[in-house]
Amino acid sequence: MQHGKYRFIVGFLVIPLAIYAIFVISPFVQAIYYSFTDWTGLSSDMKMVGFDNYTRLFKDSVFWAAVGNSVTLLLLLPVVTLSLGLFFAFMLNVGGRRRKKAVIGGVRGSGTYKILYFFPQVLSIPIVALLFQFAYNPESGALNAFFKAIGLDNVQPDWLGDPQLALWCIMGAMFWANVGFYVVLFSAGMSSIPKDFYEAALLDGANRFNTFFRITLPLLWDTVQTGWIYMGILALDVSAFAFVQIMSVGPGGPDYSTEVLPLYVYQKTFRDGQAGYATSIGVSLLIVTLIFSAIVMRLGRRERLEF
Amino acid sequence: MSVQTTKPPAATGRDGAGGRGRKGGESGEGRVLNVFSHGVLVIWGLLVTMPLLWAVISSFKDDGEIFGSPWGLPSALHFDNWARAWDKANMGQYFFNSLVVVGGSLIGTMLLGSMAAYVLARFDFPGNRFIYFLFVGGMGFPIILALVPLFFVMKNMALLDTYHGLILVYIGYSLPFTVFFLSGFFRTLPTSVAEAALIDGASHTRTFFQVMLPMAKPGLISVGIFNFLGQWNQYLLPTVLNVGDPDKKVLTQGLVALAVSQGYKGDWSGLFAGLTIAMLPVLGAYIIFQRQVVAGLTAGALK
Questions:
Q1: A131 at the B interface (CB within 8 A)?
Q2: Are the beta carbons of B146 and A31 separated by less than 8 Å?
Q3: Interface residue of A2, A7, A8, A13 to substitute, partner B, most B CBs within 10 Å
Q4: Are residues B145 and A95, on separate chains, in Cβ contact within 8 Å?
Q5: A7-21, A247-261, B148-162, B180-194: which has the minimum mean pLDDT?
Q6: Model ipTM?
Q7: CA distances, B223 to each of B192, B220, B287 (Å)
C-alpha cells in the first residue's frame, strides 16, 4: 500500500504544483532578481546594477507621489469601508427595535437591504469604474446635472480633472464597490453571536450604543481584522490599479494626483520600457504590504474571546 | 407613538424596503436614532441602486438625451444601442471569450485545487507542510510584482493572447485560496468513510472522486462561487497578458477598450448599452443565487 500511496500523492500534486510554480512562484522570484538589473523588458540584454534602481527611487518624485497616494488609500479605505460595513451590519442585524418574539433583530426590510447592498460586489471593477467616470463627467455627468437640477448651477466641479478632488473621487467609487461585502460578511459574523448575550445585556439595560461596543465589536474582532488586511491588500494591489488606471484623466491623474504604486509599476514596464526599475518599485510595494500586515497584526492582537 | 415618527423620511423610495409605518416597538429608546438610522440605510440603498438604474435607463436613450437630460427618462426605447454594442462593438465576442476562459479555468481550478488540497490535508509525507505554505503564501503577495516576469514567461512559452494561456494563469492565481480553503474543509471530513472505501478495495484515486469529492460538495460550491466571481471580474491579468489580438479580449478589458474608442467616437449610448450588457447577467445570476453566493463568500472569509 505504501508504494501506491506515494504514486498517488505525486500524481495528484504534480500538475497543480507545476502550474503554480511556473506562473506564480517563478515570476515572483524573478522579479526580485530583475530589480537589481537595468533590464528594459524589450530585449534580453541586461546587466547587474546592484542597488542603483533602489537609490534612484529616492530621487524619483513621481514614486514618492505614488507612495503618498497609496498610503492614503491604505489608511482611509479600510477605516471608512469597515466602519460603514459595521454600522450597516449592526443596524440590519441587531439595531432594530424589539419585536414580540425575537430578542434582537434587524430593522424592517433588512433582508432586502442586504441583497441591495451586495450588488456592487458582483460587478467587475471596470463596470464600477466606468459608471463612476460617467457620473463624474463634468459636462454631462449625473453629478453635475444633479447639482444643476437642484439650483446649484455654479457648483460644477471638474471632479476627476481636479488634482484636489481626483483621488477622493476614485476613493468614492472604491467605497461604493466594497462596503456591501462587509455588510454581508459582518452580518454573517453577528448572526453567530449567541442571542443570550444580547438578552443579558438588555436585561441590564444596555442601549444600542453599549451593545455594539461591549458585545458585538469585541466578539467580531477576528473578522474585522481579516477584513482589514484584505482591504489593505486591495488598496495596494489589483483594485487600486484597476480603478486608477480606468478612471484617471491622463496617466496618473492631473499632476500625478492619483498615481499609485501598482499603476506606476505598470507604466514603467509597459509604457517606458524600464522593467528593471519597475520591479524595484514592485519590491517596495511588497515591503509596504508586509509592513502594513505586521502593523495590523500587532495592533489587532488582543485576547481571543471564545463563545 | 405616532406612525409618523417611525417612518423614515425617505422611506417612500422606490425600493420599498423602508419601514411601512407599522405599529410595534415596545421600547421607547431612541426614536430619533431610529429615524436617523433608517434614513441612513435608505440613503445607502439609493446610492447603491441609483447608478445602476441610471446606466440601464441611459442605455435606452440616444446621445442627445444622455447629454441634454442625464436624469430624464428616454423618449423612446432605443434598442438599437444594444444591437450596436453587441455586434459592432464586439460585446458578443468579448462575452464569448470570457465564457470560454472562465469556464476552462473554473473547471481546472476546482479539479486541480481539490486534488492538491486533498493530498495536503489527508496524507503525511515529507515536504507536506512546505508545499502547503508555498501555496498559502501566495495569497498575500501583490500580483503586480509578478506581472513583468510573468509576461515574459508567457511570451517564451508562446502563451500570450491565447485562451489556454489565460486559463493556466487564472488557475495558477486562484490556487492559493482554493487550496487553503479546501484543505481546511477536507480536514474536517470524517476519516471513517474514506477508510471503509479503501478496505472495500477502492484505490486512492477512486476514493477521492467517488467518496471524498461528493462529501466536500458544500465546500466546493463555496470556493466555486468565489473563484467564478474573481475570474469573471479579472481585469489586471488580461490587461497585461492578452493585448495582441483585439478579438481575444475578455469582457472586462473589452469594456474598457469600448469606453476608450466610443469616447473618441462620441457613441455614449452604445457605451451605456455595452455596460448594461456586461452588468445585467451577473446581477441577474446574483439575485437568483444570492443565498448561495453570500453563504459561499462569507464561509471563505470567516474561516
A1: yes
A2: yes
A3: A13
A4: no
A5: A247-261
A6: 0.85
A7: 25, 5, 19
What residue ranges in B104-250 does DSSP mark as E strands?
none
pLDDT tens for A240-261 read 899 998 988 777 778 888 999 9
Interface residue A207 vs chain B (CB under 8 A)? yes
Min Cα distance A261 → chain B (Å) is 9
User: What percentage of chain B carries pLDDT values higher than 70?
Assistant: 87
Query: Which of B112, B131, B142 faces A282 most closely, judged by CB atoms?
Result: B142
- Give the Å distances, CA to CA, from A215 to A88, A223, A307: 16, 14, 11
Backbone dihedral region for residue B2 (phi beyond 0: left; psi -120 to 50: alpha; all else: beta): beta
Which residue, among A110, A87, A191, has the nearest Cα to B302 in the 3D structure? A191
Could you identify the residue written with the cell 451605456?
Answer: B272
Given an 8 Å threshold on Cβ–Cβ distance, is B293 in contact with A131?
no
B152 chain-A contacts, CB cut-off 8 A: 41
pLDDT of residue B10: 38
Provide, for chain A, the percentages of residues in helix, strand and coil under a 3-state DSSP scheme, each rounded to the nearest 5: 70, 0, 25
In chain A, the DSSP E strands lie at: none
Query: For residue B94, what pLDDT band results from cuts at 50, 70 and 90?
Result: very high
Q: Which residues of chain A make contact with B179, given a CB cutoff of 8 A? A: 16
What is the C-alpha separation between B172 and A28, in angstroms, rounded?
13
| Lowest mean pLDDT across A145-149, A196-200, B189-193 | A145-149
What does pTM read for this prediction? 0.85
**Helix/strand/coil percentages in chain B, nearest 5:** 75, 0, 25
What is the reported pLDDT for B132? Answer: 93
Q: Are B174 and B231 in contact (CB under 8 A)?
A: yes
The alpha carbon of residue A236 is apart from the nearest alpha carbon of chain B, in Å, by 8
Cα torsion B38, B40, B42, B43 to 10°: value is: 160
Buried b (16+ CB within 10 A) or exposed e, B74-95: beeebeebbebbbeebbbebbb
Which residues fall within 8 angstroms of residue A259, CB to CB, at 6 or more apart? A62, A65, A66, A69, A244, A251, A252, A253
